[in-house]
Amino acid sequence: MKHGLGEVALPGSRTHRTDWVMEGLRLGRATVDQLAAVVAGVLADVPPYPPAAFSGRGVVMVGGGLHYLIPAWASLSVLRKSGCHLPVEVWFPVAEQPSRPAVAALEGLGGVAVRTLDVVDLQQRGFALKSAALLLSSFQEVLFLDSDNLAVRDPSPLFASPQYAATGALFWRDFWDRSSVPEIHEVLRFPNEQVPKVTFESGQMVIDKARHWRGLLLAVYMNVYGKTFAELLSCYLGKGDKETFVYAMLAAGEAYWVSPQPPGSAGVVQVLCEPGRAASCRRQFMGNTMVQPGPDGLPLFFHANYEKWDLALPAAFEAYQRRWQVLAPGGQDVVGGVFLNTSYGIGYDVERHVFQVLSALRCAPWFTAYYQLRLALDDPPLPALDGFHPLPNYISFRPFYRLGWSGAYMGLFRPSLGDRLVHAYYRVLRWRLKPLERRLKGKK
Questions:
Q1: How do beta strands 141-145 and 57-62 pair?
Q2: CB-based contacts of 78, cutoff 8 Å, min separation 6
Q3: 295-319 pLDDT, tens per residue?
Q4: Which pLDDT does position 105 carry in this prediction?
Q5: Is the CB of residue 60 less than 8 Å from the CB of residue 133?
Q6: What is the maximum span of the chain, computed from C-alpha positions, in angstroms?
C-alpha cells in the first residue's frame, strides 16, 4: 500500500515504568528520515477538498456499547438543555450499533442522526474512531464532543468567535506538559520553535474541514498508524489520538487556536490517610472531571474523562453522592458558585439534571431489550437500581507530581516540601538512572 509505514525502529516503549525519551535516548537518523519521508508523501498526495461532500455546521460524537451510550445520552440531553440546536451525528462501530428502538430513542432527542462507522483500516476500536467520525461526518464545520463531555453552556457561539474566524480550529490544553520526542519537528518538518510546550485533549474540538483538510487527513493517517505516532507524540499519560490533530496541522502549515487558560478539575475533597510509622491524614482534592473554559474564560465543558457516567445510581437523589462538589483551582462550590451563579450563564443544577436523565434512561421502555442485547455481547452487567451507589475511585494529582510529571495540573493541589523533593528526584535523576539499573539487573 502506498504510504504504508512499515517497520519503524523505536528505542523502546513508553510506560509509567520505562520511557526512552525521559531516559535520554533518541530516534536514529534513519528512523527520522523514514518517518519524515512518509509524512511528506502523505501531505503531497492529499486530494483537493471536496466542497460538495460536506455542508453546514454540526456536532459529532462517537458512541458504542453501554460504556459509551450512557454518557452520550447524558451529554446529548445537556447539550439540548443548554440551548444548542445544532444537528448531531452519533457514530457507532459496526459491532456496537444500537438496536432500532435505541436508534429511535436517540433520534427522538431532536436533530440527532445515528450513523455507522465501518472503516476497516481503523480496526473498529480505540481512539482512531474519533478522527474517522470527524472526517466522514456530513458537516463542513464540526464541534467534536467526546461522549462523556457535557457542554454546560450553548457551544454554538464558538463558531462565531474571533478565534475561530481567524484560524478555523479551536483546541484545549491537557493537564500535562509536552512529552513528544525531541525530533518531532524533523519528522513532521516544521520549525523547532513551533513545538508546543503543552499537551492537548481532544474531548472537544472545533474544526473547519475546508480550512484544515490536509491537516485532518494527516491526523487520520497518524491514527491509522497510532501505535507508532502515539509513541512519538506522548508519554504514557496521553497516548491516543489527542496530540495528532494539532501536530498534523503544524505539519500542514495550518493555523489553530489553543485556549490560553489551563483546564480546571471538578471533584471532591476527601480525607486521605497514609499508614506507616509516621501515619498522617490530610484533606486532599480528588478530581474526576476536566473543566475547560470558553474563549470568555468561563466554564463551558465538563469532560467526565475519569469515571464515566453510568447507571450505578441510588433510587433517589437525596441518597446520591455528588461527583462535582468543588472546582479546582480556587475551591469554588460547583453548584452554588458555578451552576447557579448567574454570571456564569448556566442557570440550573447540571448534576441533578444528569441524575434525573439517567434514572429515566434506566426505566425507559426500550432500554431493557437493549441492555439484554449488550449483555449477550459481553458488556458488564449493571447493579440493581435499589439504592446501591458506589463511590468511584477519583484521581489524586499528588502521585503524578511525586513521580516527576509536570504540567498545569500542579496548580490543583499544594505539594509539601517532601513532595517537592521527591518530584525533583524523579523529574531528572531517577530516569537517568534507569539504564544503569537495567544493566545491573542483567548482570545478576
A1: parallel
A2: 150, 151, 152, 350, 353, 354, 357
A3: 999 999 999 988 888 888 888 898 8
A4: 94
A5: yes
A6: 70
Alpha helices by DSSP H, 306-364: 334, 350-362
Q: Check: CB of residue 70 under 8 Å from CB of residue 383.
A: no
Specify the pLDDT at position 386: 56
Burial of 384 (0-12, 13-18, 19+ CB in 10 A): exposed
Three-state secondary structure call for residue 73: helix
Would you report the helix, strand and coil content of the chain in percent, each value rounded to 5? 40, 20, 40
Rg, C-alpha atoms of the chain: 23
Beta strands across the sheet bearing 57-62: 112-117, 88-93, 57-62, 141-145, 198-208, 169-177, 257-258
Q: What percentage of the chain reaches a pLDDT higher than 70?
A: 92
User: What is the pLDDT at residue 222?
Assistant: 94
pLDDT at 325 over 60: yes
Q: Which three cell numbers stand for residue 47?
A: 486530494
> Strand pairing partners for 88?
59, 112
Q: What is the mean pLDDT of residues 278-296?
A: 86
Q: Residue 169 in 3-state DSSP?
A: strand
Element (H, E) at 131: helix 128-136
Burial 17-54 (b: 16+ CB within 10 A, else e): eebbbbbeeebeeebbebbbebbeebbeeeeebeeeeb
What does the mean pLDDT of the chain come to?
A: 89
Least confident of 33-47, 69-83, 209-223, 422-436: 422-436
**Calpha distance 151→238 (Å, rounded):** 22
* Cα distance between residue 442 and residue 22, in whole Å: 21
Pick the more confident residue, 243 or 380: 243
Output the pLDDT for position 124. Answer: 39
